[in-house]
Amino acid sequence: MIDAHETERRLAEHCQASQHRVSPFHCAYNYTSRGPELRGIDAGFQPAVMEVLGWYWEDLHANRQIDFEMILRFAHELISTVPSIAILLSQMFRFVLIDEYQDTKEIQYDIVAHIMRAGVGRTNAFVVGDANQAIFGSLGGYAIAQAQFAADCGAPFTAKSLSVNYRSSERIVGYFSNYHVMPAAISAEGKDRLFPSKITYDHVTEARDLEDALIGLLRYNIETAGIAPREICIVGPQWIPLAVVTRRLVAALPEYSFDGPGIAPFARNIDNFFYKLARLALTEPSPQLYVRRLRWAGEVIAEMEHAGVSVKNISRKSLLRTCNSIEIGEDDGLTYLDLFFDELFFQLGLELADYPNLAEHREMFVGDSQKRIESLERGGLQGITDIAMFRRVFASRSGITISTIHQVKGAEFDAVISFALLQGMVPNSNDAHVDSANKLLYVICSRARKNLHLISETGRVNWRGDPYNPTDVLAAYPFAYDPIPDEEA
């Protein structure tokens, strides 16, 4: 199975052979129960994209490889054409638990439905999620209607609703409830229920002054409101403007640290063997991390066994002891990892060349990491190659979090600051439906416990040179916002 980075590389190669200016961006697809489906591509351009994807699929077939979407495709084909598989699975599993159902794909719903129908009452399902947070439509996810899923499964579903919010203040809950797509009565009942939340909306600051506005809000929340830096999150719709903002904030606020998956200095490919090994290389032995590192060691051993390594003399504890004993005197993070991998394989008595699958994983991990570092450095992030930056990827959250809207889903912070809330970014120009904007704003605003600061900066223009305007549904909300803290001063 190839990872996302290898998929992009292969698609880029095939796009070069196309005469229709197809790029890997255009080739994003997902399988449905009816076949492959392109994401947000005009009908007239689809044949050119499908031609490139055809070459890509032939390439994978010739090399006996599949990507993630093809796992779902072949699983669906098997369960649809071999009835005994669904029957066997229904006998094995009494319960199917589906979390975040609103991000589930149509083909995944259909796989579950086959198992449920075959179970004829033996198999039950518990499905949980929030249709108001269905923001992964561009990846094929959607919130299926209860009646439709019940009909597909041949089983009745009892609807239950959670109406109590234990996270946010009453004022925050009241505010984000405006962005409901599916009606839901929510009441605040947590310890911060009566907190006098500040909710601000800045639609006058120019993009060139955004850094100053963010610094003002950060200082207010930390120095005046007494909120810890680790409990603050800055949210943006895209990584490019986030990287630029991060670079400037790091320089302007050296007294604070910043955390975020978008500024990870190496490829965060969780399926890559050497990414899993890097977790052990970059974390120090400690009682707090012992159980987690023990689990990581188990995952590494399982991957080694899958690759053909004899692991009968390697236990999770012995692997941790070996990793803990390795000392590398190197400040460059990627070089450090390279030396660590060599030393570990030497101490385990293994030759990487004897295991082609692992060798391929290492080549992809190093190559993708080098590309990521180059990209971050072009974006202006300095010191990204330092071993300290590498170690921070797996360290406990200690600084101000930087995140995209999609990656912040599920997290919570005392204060949330969101910028670039502009029509064409939130939502993006390919998905300008009002429901999409409501869902994105719902996710952003419901992450906050105490304070919420929204910014639609002026002066940004799109690729055509047209100015961005504030997100329509945000601009149309007649809320009694608090004065921006700097204005109060």
Automatic annotation (TrEMBL):
Pfam families for this protein: UvrD-helicase, UvrD_C
UvrD-like helicase ATP-binding domain mapped to chain residues: 1-169
Catalytically driven reaction(s): Couples ATP hydrolysis with the unwinding of duplex DNA by translocating in the 3'-5' direction; ATP + H2O = ADP + phosphate + H(+)
Signal peptide: none
Keywords associated with the record: ATP-binding, Helicase, Hydrolase, Isomerase, Nucleotide-binding
Enzyme Commission number: 5.6.2.4
Molecular function, one GO term: helicase activity
EC class of the enzyme, as a word: isomerase
Family to which this protein belongs: Belongs to the helicase family. UvrD subfamily.
Protein name, per record: DNA 3'-5' helicase
Organism: Brevundimonas fontaquae
